[in-house]
Amino acid sequence: MSPSPPRQGLHHLWPSRKPLIGMVHLLSLPGSPGWAGSMDAVVDRALADAHALARGGMDGVLVENFCDVPFHAESVPPVTVAAMAAVVARVVEASSVPVGVNVLRNDAGAALGIAVATGARFIRVNVHTGVMWTDQGVIEGRAAETLRTRACLGADVAILADVAVKHATPPPGQSEEDAAADAWHRGLADALIVSGVATGAPTDPGLAQRVCAAVPQAPVLVGSGVRADTVAALLRVCHGAIVGTAIAKGGKAGGGIDDDAVSALVSAARGEG
């Protein structure tokens, strides 16, 4: 195997500590079944959530079209890209922490384009390499396209790639360790994400340890089920965490950010409790 090119990992975004990245779950966007007819409402909620995350001490923000169910498997319509770009631009302008983009279910090209156009600093890609069986059907990774597009654009945008992403099943015989090695060495991801089986489901610490051991050069983040009572232990294993459900009002993803839950999570992570 040829050596991987040098990568900055997450250090250029968060040089001093393991980041806590909070989710901004957008309200339904134009064209989706849940669209309520007001982009102002979408923007206002996104800005309120982003402000709450930064105010509570989170280190980053990840904007996602969470309420656009059911999701397109890969390419989303132009109206989704346009709407997300409009919202992300406002969030980037208002945020003092790095902002990322995830275009569900797996439109890495759209996420990268939005990031370049708005100044967002990273993207999450659910299936970057390999194949996963999902509720949208079979999704194939497009790492070759994503990396070449990023190079052509000259974009300083980090790629955070899921390993055996939630709400999906890997093909028979594929281990998480092998998937992680492929995403890092062959897919050239900048960081890896491990998660539970579904949104809000706890991540198995043993899985996190195995992935970290399989690819010791890679920053590994926990991508689901992080709570105030588990975050400190998970951060001892991994290099950061992405948190949504545990800091949402009523513990419901997409319901807006709960200030007290953010404070409790940050305090627990930083050993201030």
Describe it.
The chain has one domain: TIM Barrel. The relative contact order is 0.15. It is 35% helix and 16% strand. The chain has 8 helices and 11 strands. β3 (99-102), α3 and β4 (122-125) form a beta-alpha-beta unit. It has an 8-stranded parallel β-sheet. It has a 3-stranded antiparallel β-sheet with strand order 6-5-8, with no helix packed on it. α1 (39-55) packs parallel to α2 (78-94). The protein is α/β, with parallel strands linked by helices and 273 residues long. The longest helix has 17 residues, at 39-55. It is globular.
In summary, what is this structure?
The protein has 273 residues and is an alpha/beta fold. It contains 8 helices and 11 strands.
Secondary-structure map with pairings?
Layout: E1 20-25, H1 39-55, E2 60-64, H2 78-94, E3 99-102, H3 108-118, E4 122-125, E5 131-134, E6 137-140, H4 143-153, E7 158-162, E8 168-169, H5 176-186, E9 191-194, H6 205-214, E10 220-222, H7 231-237, E11 241-243, H8 259-269
Parallel strand pairs: 1-2, 1-11, 2-3, 3-4, 4-7, 7-9, 9-10
Antiparallel strand pairs: 5-6, 5-8
Helix pairs in contact: 1-2, 2-3, 3-4, 5-6
